[in-house]
What we know:
Layout: E1 2-5, H1 14-32, E2 36-41, H2 44-50, H3 60-71, E3 77-82, H4 89-97, E4 104-107, H5 115-122
Parallel strand pairs: 2-3
Antiparallel strand pairs: 1-4
Helix pairs in contact: 1-3
Amino acid sequence: MASGTWIRQGFYCATTAEAWGIYQAMIFSIDCGFRNVQFESDCEKVIKLLQGTGEIHKNYLGTIIESILSLQICFSHCVFSHVRRNGNRLPHFMAQLAISVLDKVWMEDVPSNALPLYYSDLI
């Protein structure tokens, strides 16, 4: 398990930002040498596009989705799952943390102030 914070300027919609976050997580997973991965998001639209149940348009979001799909071959097993917001509190916290803590990575760990969320998401 790994987590990190990155900030990217210029997203005008949460859906595109969520897709970019998954793309960034995939690059990070490849760099870490992970082979069996599961990416979770509370953005149902992005997950449906990644699972092939939505129409990919030729726009910035569509380009990110196509980039994500092209990276799947880098993994032995790659799954995209939708989780409800109440089951996705730790990633939401990490996204908010990215505003103040830039370009930080935690390997086999989470920030100490996020531990309660980590444990509650395990349940």
